[in-house]
């Protein structure tokens, strides 16, 4: 974990850019060459023991502890796959690198990350009032689709209550 944090600090300090973590997963299997004993190559073929499940959860919690600590420097975290059933790390061996199991049910690692994020939110400074933003959508060319003078668009204003929508487009001849 110290190496992950130091790499983040070094990269951000050197470039000033936000870091995107991509293809995050944790390989639980030992290296195995061709012709390796299947019991050695795939020691968890019948399921991941609880102690390994808890170690994986702690590792993810520690990683997300660093992410939360330096959240202003991180733009995104992307996992490499959704569930253990879909992991590229299986490749003929049973691996368990992700947050959901083979039946796509959350594993202790998922809950560990949720706990880290909840704890960070609970200890964070009070939130600032949201900045109201408006998104306006407009057609690029509406010729022949709508009549001149017809209202055809909308503006979305998000806020603490459900967003409000104001329909306000008018087609004009150019």
SSE arrangement:
Blueprint lengths: L1 H14 L3 E6 L13 H4 L8 H20 L4 E6 L28 H16 L11 E3 L16 E4 L6 E3 L8
Parallel strand pairs: 1-2
Antiparallel strand pairs: 3-4, 4-5
Helix pairs in contact: 3-4
What do you see in this structure?
- By secondary structure, this protein is an alpha+beta fold.
- It contains 4 helices and 5 strands; from the N terminus they run αβααβαβββ.
- It has helices at residues 2-15, 38-41, 50-69, 108-123, and strands at 19-24, 74-79, 135-137, 154-157, 164-166.
- The chain starts with a helix and ends in an 8-residue tail after the last strand.
- Mean pLDDT is 77; it is low at 131-158 and 163-174.
Largest sheet data: 3 strands, antiparallel
Q: Rg to the nearest angstrom?
A: 24 Å
* Content-based structural category: alpha+beta
Please give the alpha-carbon distance between the first and last residues. Answer: 60 Å
List the total number of helices. Answer: 4
**Which regions have little confidence, pLDDT < 50, spanning 5+ residues?**
131-158, 163-174
Keywords:
single chain, 174 residues, alpha+beta, three-stranded antiparallel sheet, two-stranded parallel sheet, 5 strands
Concise synopsis of the structure shown:
The chain is an alpha+beta fold and 174 residues long. The chain has helices spanning 2-15, 38-41, 50-69, 108-123, and strands at 19-24, 74-79, 135-137, 154-157, 164-166.
């Amino acid at each position: 974990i110290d190496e992950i944090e130091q790499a983040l600090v070094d990269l951000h300090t050197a470039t000033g850019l936000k870091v995107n973590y991509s293809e995050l997963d944790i390989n639980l299997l030992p290296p195995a060459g061709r012709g390796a004993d299947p019991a050695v190559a795939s020691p968890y073929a019948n399921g991941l023991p609880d102690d390994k499940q808890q170690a994986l959860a702690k590792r993810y919690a520690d990683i997300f502890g660093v992410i939360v600590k330096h959240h202003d420097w991180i733009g995104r975290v992307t996992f490499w796959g959704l569930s253990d059933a879909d992991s590229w790390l299986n490749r003929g061996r049973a691996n368990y690198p992700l947050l959901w199991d083979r039946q796509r049910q959350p594993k202790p690692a998922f809950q560990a990350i949720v706990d880290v994020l909840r704890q960070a939110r609970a200890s964070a400074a009070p939130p600032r009032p949201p900045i109201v933003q408006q998104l306006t959508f407009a057609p690029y060319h509406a010729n022949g689709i709508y009549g001149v003078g017809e209202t055809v668009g909308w503006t979305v204003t998000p806020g603490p209550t459900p967003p409000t929508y104001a329909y306000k487009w008018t087609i004009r001849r150019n």
